[in-house]
């Protein structure tokens, strides 16, 4: 039976459609790319916990136990000297002010200037950002504070007034954040921050790598030559973590003893 022209066209159209369908089934399927959600690693990390101060109950005992077990050489030093005691009666702000005043001065000269400065403020309880900002550079120079140090004190007080620093926030900051914030203050460098963290805040794991006395103590403790550089101190004292502040305290005692360990008290035989 003869096909009509329309039937022929329809047949051709169907065969082409089937052919395309068959060939398309052999092509690899391309999955759509699904956009990735931002991973948690790209989010802002939570703040580090503030370490317990060395004045917390039982913390010094934990520190000494760890250091004795971690470093037998340091253990002999620990046994030869009294247990460290950390205490301060000053606010963080007052302690930072004292740190600035005492720079490059003897203890006697520093104390004399500090006493006059406190009297100028109206007494110990009146030393604060507002009272410091109320004093002119000329008034500060009148009690023995140099021009640059007057600028440093005003900068510290201004950062308190502007909310960049406060006693409460300093107590809550982790070590890394605190270091960054305090070194933004004019006249406060790494050494001053390390001393503040150890002796005012009693942070347990601070290693003042630039402190000459601590470096000298490490040199004597391990019998090194020459004096270890700041870049070497991190590696040398790695085993003291997380109580490098206590290890550093013993380096001061070792240097004071001229590198010779005192004899331990005699042990009772009874």
UniProtKB/TrEMBL annotation:
Taxon lineage: Eukaryota, Viridiplantae, Streptophyta, Embryophyta, Tracheophyta
Listed GO biological process terms: base-excision repair, AP site formation; DNA alkylation repair
Gene3D superfamilies cross-referenced by the UniProt entry: 1.10.1670.40, Hypothetical protein, domain 2
Similarity comment text for this entry: Belongs to the alkylbase DNA glycosidase AlkA family.
The species this protein was found in: Arachis hypogaea
Protein name (database record): HhH-GPD domain-containing protein
Coiled-coil intervals, chain numbering: none
A GO term, aspect molecular function: DNA-3-methyladenine glycosylase activity
Keyword Nucleus annotated: no
């Amino acid at each position: 039976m003869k096909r009509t022209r329309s039937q022929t066209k329809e047949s051709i159209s169907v065969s082409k459609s089937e052919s395309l369908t068959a060939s398309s089934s052999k092509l690899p399927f391309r999955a759509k790319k699904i956009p990735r959600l931002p991973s948690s690693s790209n989010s802002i990390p939570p703040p580090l916990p503030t370490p317990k101060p060395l004045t917390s109950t039982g913390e010094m005992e934990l520190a000494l136990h760890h250091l004795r077990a971690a470093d037998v050489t340091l253990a002999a030093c620990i046994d030869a000297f009294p247990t460290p005691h950390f205490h301060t009666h000053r606010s963080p702000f007052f302690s930072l002010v004292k740190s600035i005043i005492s720079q490059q001065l003897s203890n006697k000269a520093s104390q004399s200037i500090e006493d006059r400065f406190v009297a100028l403020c109206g007494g110990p309880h009146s030393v604060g950002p507002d009272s410091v900002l109320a004093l002119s550079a000329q008034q500060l120079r009148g009690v023995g504070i140099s021009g640059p140090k007057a600028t440093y004190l005003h900068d510290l007080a201004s950062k308190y007034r502007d909310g960049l620093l406060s006693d409460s926030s300093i107590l809550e900051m982790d070590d890394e954040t605190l270091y960054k914030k305090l070194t933004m203050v004019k006249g406060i460098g790494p050494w001053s921050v390390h001393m503040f963290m150890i002796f005012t805040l009693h942070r347990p794991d601070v290693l003042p790598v630039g402190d000459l006395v601590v470096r000298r103590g490490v040199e004597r403790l391990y019998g090194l030559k020459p004096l270890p550089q700041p870049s070497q101190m991190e590696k040398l004292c790695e085993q003291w973590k997380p109580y490098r502040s206590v290890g550093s305290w013993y380096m001061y005692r070792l240097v004071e003893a001229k590198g010779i360990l005192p004899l331990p008290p005699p042990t009772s035989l009874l």
